[in-house]
Design goal:
Layout lengths: L4 E4 L3 H12 L6 E4 L15 H4 L11 H6 L2 E4 L4 E5 L4 E4 L4 E3 L2 E4 L3 E3 L12 E2 L4 H12 L3 E5 L3 H12 L3 E6 L11 H13 L3 E4 L3 E7 L2 E7 L4 E3 L2 E4 L3 E3 L2 H5 L8 E2 L11 E3 L4 E4 L6 E2 L4 H15 L11 E6 L2 E7 L6 E7 L4 E8 L2 E8 L2 H13 L5 H5 L4 H14 L1
Parallel strand pairs: 1-2, 1-7, 2-3, 7-19, 9-16, 10-11, 10-16, 11-12, 18-20
Antiparallel strand pairs: 4-5, 5-6, 8-17, 13-14, 14-15, 20-21, 22-23, 23-26, 24-25, 25-26
Helix pairs in contact: 1-8, 9-11
Amino acid sequence: MNNGVVIVGAGHAGVQAAASLREEGYSAPVILLGDEADLPYHKPPLSKTFIKDAEARPQLLRGETFYSGNAIDFRPGVRVARIDVAGRQLDLADGGRLPFDRLILATGSRPRVLPLPGAELAGVVSLRSLADARLIRELSAGASDVVILGGGFIGLEIAATLAAGGRRVTVVEAADRLLGRAVAPGVAAHVRRRLEEAGVRVLTGQTVLRLEGNDGRVVGAVTGSGERLPAQMVVVGVGAAPNVDMAEAAGLATGNGIRVDASMRTSVPEILAIGDAASYRHWFTGQDVRLESVQNATDQARLAARTVLGHSEDYAAVPWFWSDIGDMKLQMVGLTAGGDRNVVSGDPAENRFSIYHYLGDRLLGIESVNRPADHMLGRKMLAAGFSPAPDLVAAGADLKAALAAHQEKTAAE
């Protein structure tokens, strides 16, 4: 009997894997397991449009008829207890068993937990799922003061959204600047200025010692300096941890995620892993990375489907990311860690600029604020292996023409 492919996780990665299997001509069973009751949905809007609009509905990744129309057996509300590698089956939490020929783990990540006194109080929330977003939307309707722990993308997106809705918002970040693991200091400083101008109070180099409650509900946060911040809601946004427990228990190799090769295979070749939970050796940097982005999730899913069908390809997608924080659309392409110089194009004072990051004369990536054309061109340049000279960027040269010339030369050679 052909047991086909079972996909654990119905987020961006899992749904794309199911779709790509059918697009690539896979005809055996495809079973997609999701642990939520809802149809799979887009996650990026949850921290923005969804929480500010009481009437907003989740944006579905695919309509309900897509699954039945493509013979994808989508099973919501299913939790997997264990992977039986030897028996090639899943033990389900309800006692059932599900055999597979190939297994794709798209288990994603979960919010990191702060071991903070008072963290158990009602009104202390994190955002990772639709249920979380619904709770934040409900709580924010009755909150005048909100404290956000963590100055990463999720925390700042929520801060900007709630401040625009009239709440008094304070962001507390333990590091000395915002977005410390995500963008250059210049972009982080710009984001901070714009948020503060919009009414968000930002405290960096600060921690929260405890949360205070009344009748089981949070009413405030006490910082390391002794300041008490009133809060009817506290949002914890201090990063995410990959969901690897099930893979580890099954004996799969892990290390800041489920270890995969260039074709998305784990240490057990019949099992693949993709998306937020997968750790791999990056083709551009030569370093082990785990990327949390929709682009990475969907591109890895497409490749995993081709791997299942017997194609031999290495993952070589150019990574890109985005975040909407207030009136700033941040777009990042490439991986800029390790750069030794940068060039600014555009004017931060106009809230429109890009920072080009280099290692020597090699372009590593571009961070853009409200400059989508720079971002799109950057994706093309990195995919083509083209690094415009830093002095050309500084002079405002026509980089599109320079890329075209590079491509013509490469084709001729």
